[in-house]
Write a structure and sequence with these properties.
By secondary structure, the protein is α+β, with helices and mostly antiparallel strands. It has helices spanning 3-10, 18-24, 28-40, 65-72, 80-86, 144-154, 164-170, 181-189, 194-212; strands spanning 16-17, 44-48, 51-54, 76-78, 97-101, 106-110, 113-119, 128-132, 138-142.
Length: 213
């Protein structure tokens, strides 16, 4: 298969899986060699082993990094800092796409950026929903409150006893009036962690203080 035929056949796909291509090709090693050469020439982008994307000029659709993140490592959902920025709960743009998974902690670095996956116990793998990107592709993302609980849980060691100033000055939480303290507490209970419960109660007090200002 030459690159022109390859491109024309796959321009409508959001990502390219080598395992799907190998089912259609008798000479699998030849195809893998072609993929390697096209990658070196910049014609395709390797997202991880066996997962590719056409270069920007040749693809007709542009799936979001959120969609790509879900596809690279499953099961997973967008959460923590990246989700909080999307929701407008923290002001700084977050470059790395942060996700939660029940599988082992993992990260991928490719032409689209860094994709970071952090492990949580299966019973806490809840509190996410389906969203749609600008290209019409669906992905999973934490609810606002779950993204906060995930962030707190994954950074328990980083929070000193006096954390209110950290919420305000370091993370610069904003728009907290959109949050439900009831949901925050309910999501925190999923982790069965006493330190996390104490921390989320402090965060809920922080929300109440912010509402008074």
């Amino acid at each position: 298969m030459n690159y022109v035929d390859f491109k024309n056949n796959l321009q409508q796909l959001p990502i390219i899986l080598s395992k799907d291509l190998l089912r259609q090709e008798k000479e699998g090693q030849i195809l893998l060699n072609q993929l390697y050469r096209w990658q070196k020439k910049g014609l395709i982008i390797k997202l991880k082993r066996g997962v590719y994307l056409l270069n920007k000029n040749d693809r007709k659709i542009n799936p979001s990094r959120e969609f790509i993140s879900n596809q690279l490592y499953s099961p997973s959902y967008i959460s923590s800092q990246y989700a909080l920025n999307l929701y407008g709960l923290i002001p700084e743009r977050v470059a790395d796409v942060t996700s939660i998974t029940t599988k082992k902690t993992m990260s991928f670095k490719n032409g689209l950026g860094n994709f970071i996956y952090q492990h949580i116990k299966p019973q806490a793998f809840r509190g996410f929903k389906t969203a749609t990107d600008d290209a019409g592709f669906s992905f999973f993302i934490a609810e606002r409150e779950k993204a906060i609980v995930d962030l707190l849980y994954l950074n328990l060691r980083e929070f000193p006893p006096e954390t209110t100033s950290l919420f305000r000055d370091y993370f610069r939480f904003q728009n907290t009036e959109k949050l439900s303290t009831r949901k925050i507490i309910e999501f925190a209970k999923l982790f069965s962690n006493n330190k996390l419960m104490r921390l989320v109660k402090i965060f809920c007090e922080f929300i109440k203080e912010e509402a008074k200002e």
